[in-house]
Amino acid sequence: MKTSMEGYTILFFCSLLLSIFLTSTATDTITMSQPIRDGETIVSAGGSFELGIFSPDSMKRYLGIWYKKISIPTVVWVANRESTPLVDSSGVLKVTKEGILQLLNRNGSIIWSSNSSRWAQNPVAKLLDTGNLVVIDEKDDNPENFLWQSFDYPCDTLLPGMKLGRNMTTGLEWHLSSWKSTDNPSPGDFTYRLDPQGFPQFVVRDGSVEQFRSGPWNGLHFSGFPDQIPYTTYNPHFVFNQKETYYTDELCNDSVVTRLVLNRNGIIQRFSWNDQTQDWDLSQSVPKDNCDNYAICGAYGSCNIGNSQDYCGCLKGFVPKSQQDWDISDYSNGCVRRMPLNCGSGDGFTKHSGIKFPDTRYSWYNESMTLKECESLCLKNCSCMAYTSLDVRNGGSGCLLWFGDLIDIRAFPEDKKEIYIRMASSEIGMSLSLKLDQVGSKKKKRVWIIVSLALLVGMVFLGLGLTLFVRKKKKLSREGKKGHTVERGYTTEELELPLFDLATVANATNNFSINNKLGQGGFGLVYKGVLEDGQEIAVKRLSKNSRQGLNEFKNEVIHIAKLQHRNLVKLLGCCLQVDETILIYEFMPNKSLDFFIFDHTRSILLDWTKRFQIIIGIAQGLLYLHRDSRLRIIHRDLKAGNILLDNKMNPKISDFGLARSFDENETEGNTKKVVGTYGYMSPEYAIDGLYSVKSDVFSFGVLLLEIAWRLYIEGKPLELIDASIGDSSNTSEVLRAIHVGLLCVQRCPEDRPNMSTVVLMLGSESELPQPKQPGFFNERNLVGTDSSSHKHEPCSTNEVTITLLEAR
Ligand SMILES: *[C@@H]1O[C@H](CO)[C@@H](O)[C@H](O)[C@H]1NC(C)=O
Ligand SMILES: *[C@@H]1O[C@H](CO)[C@@H](O)[C@H](O)[C@H]1NC(C)=O
Ligand SMILES: *[C@@H]1O[C@H](CO)[C@@H](O)[C@H](O)[C@H]1NC(C)=O
Ligand SMILES: *[C@@H]1O[C@H](CO)[C@@H](O)[C@H](O)[C@H]1NC(C)=O
Ligand SMILES: *[C@@H]1O[C@H](CO)[C@@H](O)[C@H](O)[C@H]1NC(C)=O
Ligand SMILES: *[C@@H]1O[C@H](CO)[C@@H](O)[C@H](O)[C@H]1NC(C)=O
């Protein structure tokens, strides 16, 4: 007791001494007569940044700059990362009379030094409040006259005001390079730098291999970062001319702390400091999924992460170059034209939107041309494959032309920027007539879908290659790599489901500790667990005497074990040992959708872009169940609580305890026992026990309305929507989603669209049919069972809604 008291006293005196000591040297300047030693620091005038010698591991010491006001140590710049570190605490930083900064070790050898281009009378080094360490002639802090600045030598962090790009006059190049590891700041394998060929873009490389491309700047943002807007805290700037090309962030509010980092895994992340939580908020992270991998689908291939079959497809009018390769999920050879170009006798262009613009390495641009001039210039040159406006602001200006094959394209359904791709005129005629069919009658629409499917041969073959895809996907998908556990246990022959050992499961869940409990269902408890290899799992344990539970369990296993889709929760295995019945799933860190949308504060976290992604994901998952899965399944209990969210807020449909499969011919079932959740249940199911894909569509409609309607109606929403993209097209997207939702909850099942139509309707801008009266469960009795009767007036709110939808 006594010794610890003494300890505290000593500690107290030490910290007192330290604070006196620190305040006495709290200057922002190093002069020739006042070098700094290890343990001493300088602090910028406003107190934002601090410079000194730090040690990421116990052996090596580096000169660096970090945030002063932030409780989490965050180094933003390191001087001697490319040379040798200091090995003891005798390092000294001084300014020479030539205006050069030198870092010296115990022996007085120079470990690192800066440069200077000019002579100065009285050079000093000063740490500015931007985090920039500059060498200036004393009292002359005009940026034009800096003798040297650390902002010219970025490490892994881009602070507001720093530049990324190139000064053609001086030859200076600014790029980011990752740290080798969290405790080693020397340059790692990844770089993020300007590629000046063609229209400039930024590229993340691993060594010399392209990993990710920012895409071309379109006046507002890079094509590969469609969700970068809006900027409320900083303004991105991209400057390009003959003399210099660079990107920079400009702060709108000096009290905001934001940084862009190239992390040691090659991921570009934007962090902003959150004063409330005292932590960094991650607001952006690219590459964000497999589709961001450079050229993953080859030339003219487009990667769509929402595809139910596989990520890669061909652009419209293109087919896989080698169907064989495509079948085994080798997309590197990409796609080729179905109809060859006929340059002399007039090709044309088809408009595409919702994609990341192709690699601009072989491109040409002109800032003053109009889009019309751009088109005719492209048409004149047979190797010009696409064109677009250079700058989308003010209705579009300038011209960007692509030469040679178009590569590294991905789908960004929410991005409306347009690009025009060269096509044979015969191809353009055909797609026009298809479009006309599309606006025709219902029957024609089906014909259109069939025709277009037949035309997109690539897609069909993708469907055939499903099993191969499942195996191959592992190779392609980073997530897949850690997710698959087939090798872990034996597989039960019938279900191809890995078996887990009870001891393993008990171990992973701390012996089913109550602290690991995630939730409780009618059947038993759900626990969180961590396997020995670090993989997180969710463990559903059937309580010992639940017969109902056992049936649902079996049902779940039978249905889900054979399904593989990114929007369905993945069953990793099961454990049937002693008298235990346990299912093991992938773990979903963000809980379920109801956790977000029904909670006033959490609901704010879900902006429209995320909501729309969630809607699309659920629709894709359901479409897969209804149409594309081996079993063809009706879920029967679709609701917000059964939509789980992964760490990227991707939705995954879960809980197949009530699911039923049906044959191709049989599209409607009948049950005496109505199970499910009222509120989501279609009237024909709740009352007559009739279930079909259309009862799932109904539940989907309710979900869609819950997701979209709440955002829309709660007042704040329109700001939210607008703020989340800064583009009024979002408002119309919300209204469109609501409109589709209303179509899904129509009273008669025949009137409701099927899921493939829903997916089409959500993803296009075509005109939507007028919704009829919705079939709410409690209304059915009033209106009567004759569902074709529309004598009763629909309630006025619905009418208002519908008019509202039309007015926009
Ligand atoms: C300093 O010099 C001595 C001998 O000249 C050498 O052995 C030692 O490694 C040097 N230390 C550093 C830190 O360079
Ligand atoms: C210093 O300047 C010289 C010539 O201007 C250049 O070759 C060298 O790379 C520079 N060194 C640093 C560390 O910037
Ligand atoms: C590029 O260098 C020239 C000449 O030193 C200078 O005038 C110009 O401001 C520099 N541009 C940038 C963006 O630093
Ligand atoms: C700047 O940000 C701070 C804290 O986020 C806020 O209190 C202040 O009102 C903002 N100032 C302006 C001009 O937006
Ligand atoms: C860009 O287009 C304008 C208008 O057509 C033309 O006057 C100008 O010469 C072009 N610039 C280049 C570099 O081709
Ligand atoms: C077409 O454009 C390419 C790339 O700019 C150029 O090399 C070629 O000479 C052009 N061909 C014609 C006929 O203008």
Automatic annotation (TrEMBL):
SMART domains: B_lectin, PAN_AP, S_TKc. Residues 1-26 form the signal peptide. ATP binds at K540. Residues 27-148 form the Bulb-type lectin domain. Residues 512-808 form the Protein kinase domain. One of its GO terms (molecular function) is ATP binding. It is an enzyme of class 2 (transferase). GO terms for cellular component: membrane. Its EC number is 2.7.11.1. This is Receptor-like serine/threonine-protein kinase. It comes from Liquidambar formosana (Formosan gum).
